[in-house]
Amino acid sequence: MKAMVLEGDWGLENLKATDRPEPEPGPDDIVIAIKAISINPRDLVMCQGGYGRMGGELPVVPLCDGAGEVVAMGARVSGFAPGDLVAPAFSRTWLSGTSSATTHLGAHGGPLDGTAQELMCVPASAVVKAPAHLSAAEAATLPCAAVTAWNAIAEQGEVRAGDVVLLQGTGGVSLFALQFAKMHGCTAIVTSSSDGKLERARALGADHVINYTSDPDWHKTARKISGGGGVDHVVEVGGAGTLEKSIGAVRPSGTISLIGVLSGIGAELALGRVVTQNIRLQGITVGSCEMFARMVRAMEANGTRPVIDDTRFEFDGLAEALAALPRGVHFGKVVCEL
């Protein structure tokens, strides 16, 4: 079978197509014929060696988002059938609860082999059936990006109907968070530097949009939209470049879910406001297999469909697709169908 493998050294230039033996399932395993994969900023950082020891050792098959059909099962596996459309969970060592010291040890796409391969063998305990109304390409966006947004909004975020939620950008996680916020009856504010993307966000349900280029004081505008007291929840993907304004946008005892650090990892912050206004700053790293299953049920009940960018990449062009991610030209998730 064909796999994209990072070997020799870290760096996208070392990501090559390689032939590997077809996997055989153990008694508790499922072999998935991967039909589609999707990319995340995490995958780029991982391929560049940015996770250090958490990234494991080379060689490694990258990517944590993907979906495919069950083609083989171990003798002890139940609840699945050949042909089922399924997706591997982000981590095979994070089945329930919140993250722990061992969560990263089972993460796909580093340190364990990920979804960028034609056949993937995964313990059945870490496999989730895709929503019945989705295609393989749509289901391929779920394990990392969607579960991250679901965790931020519905699980650790604990939003309630009527909350005002501020969402940064129009990448995969942010648009999933928009859909989940609306699913829970929230008022959604979306920021972007592109008026065109903001109009597309409106079509997805955004109640208010802010162009942060033409309105650099977007945090003040968000407070005004909320009625002056501040928003209830911020889904923060910018990091160092936006966190201080997110703190300025959120209400006392509100929550900031820190998911990404696209604008930098080192921030100097006036922490007094966080303390005196009882602001909850919550780091979010994907979610458990059980969270994934709950999210699937919610998506099925609401008919939620992922937003996929018009751009497609070829399997052999994975390195180029990852390199293009920081330019931020995509809207939603970028997918490759095998």
Structure description:
It is a single chain. This protein is an alpha/beta fold and 338 residues long. The protein has 2 domains: 2-144 and 286-337, Quinone Oxidoreductase, Chain A, domain 1; 157-283, NAD(P)-binding Rossmann-like Domain (Rossmann fold, 3-Layer(aba) Sandwich), CATH 3.40.50.720. The chain is 26% helix and 25% strand. It is built from 10 helices and 15 strands. The chain has helices spanning 41-47, 136-139, 142-155, 172-183, 195-203, 218-225, 243-249, 271-276, 289-302, 318-324; strands spanning 2-6, 15-19, 29-38, 65-73, 85-88, 119-123, 127-129, 164-168, 187-192, 208-211, 231-236, 250-258, 280-283, 308-312, 333-337. The strands form 3 sheets. Strands 3, 4, 5, 6, 7, 14 and 15 form a 7-stranded mixed β-sheet that branches. A 6-stranded parallel β-sheet has the order 10-9-8-11-12-13, with helices on both faces. A two-stranded antiparallel ribbon has the order 1-2. Helix 3 packs across helix 4 (172-183) and helix 6 (218-225) runs parallel beside helix 7 (243-249). The longest helix is centred in the middle third of the chain and has 14 residues, at 142-155. The protein is globular, with a radius of gyration of 20 Å. The mean pLDDT is 94.
